[in-house]
Amino acid sequence: MLNQPLQFASSQSSVNWQQPSNTGSIQFLDLLRGYGKLPHQDAALAWLQQQQSPSVLREFTRRWQDDADRKLVSVGKSAVVQLSNGTQLPTNFVLPQQSRKPESRGTMPQTGIRLRVLSDTVFKTCTQQSYQLKDSEKVFVKADTEFEITSDQPAENKHIQVVLANVALGTPPRKTWYVFCDHVEIEGSEPDNAPKNQQQSDLIKINSEKIGPIQLPGYDNTVYLSEAIITGGHFSWAEATKNGTRIPTDKSIVEGILKIAEVMEEVREYFGNRPILVNSWYRDPVTNRQVGGATRSRHLSGDAVDFVVEGISPMSVNRRLDSWWGSRGGLASASSFTHIDARGYRARWSYGF
Q: What's this model's pTM, rounded to 2 decimal places?
């Protein structure tokens, strides 16, 4: 009997719920009583208490307590949520969020990536406007919903592409979705993201002597390592390419370097034009693996810099930049450097060292 769908009737509509073989960490009935936002909970309680024997209710409780994989899911009416074990739940079934302890920014490592929804939004199968999409190509997601994700990356039209880790949404169920970048924020990083950057005190500085010509993909003019990236700026191509040992292989990487160079000029001015020491800028894939960078590190795209502001601790730099940088990109803290990138949406994490 427990393997059959349960139907909870109400004056508005009915809710079909297939009992998972393994779910949750709190008792099923307590969940129904305690979570006021669950639709049809009165009907569900009445049905359970009047129609089911104590032994059946105990079995509900046992199954609810057995599962360690339950994650927060709170989405709109048109979606179906699929858990990692294949179980499908209707979208008006809301699983409670696991408690989150306050984090001490910059001291504790973050070993997973979380997506937090800041305002009611729509997850979509592409970056088109939601009104242009079929119902099967979009899912409404409520504010304050959190998902664990395996990856995030910039997409067109101010969107982010995310891949959900433990649930699939929609019909048919999907894990890859696009969402408007201003409606969400990213917290945490890949477990293997622990770059060991050495301070680059021997980098060629900006000067009038033309040192080390390099050729950049997509650009006809010759660039020198001793040349400022931004005309009149304070950061050289030597700093971006580690004295010419990491030459970009694609024009998009050069554009990323130019973009974050503008940001670094802003950062320098923000801290009273104090000198800034660059630890790491562009990394080719081989170097990124060698130093222990994340597999999807923004350093691979050229638009990320690890740096130290002279006379100010990295933790203090991170705190002061947090609100200033806002949703323009990523910001991360370590005891020996600050990371900033221009991915185009808010992302925060700590390296834990």
A: 0.62
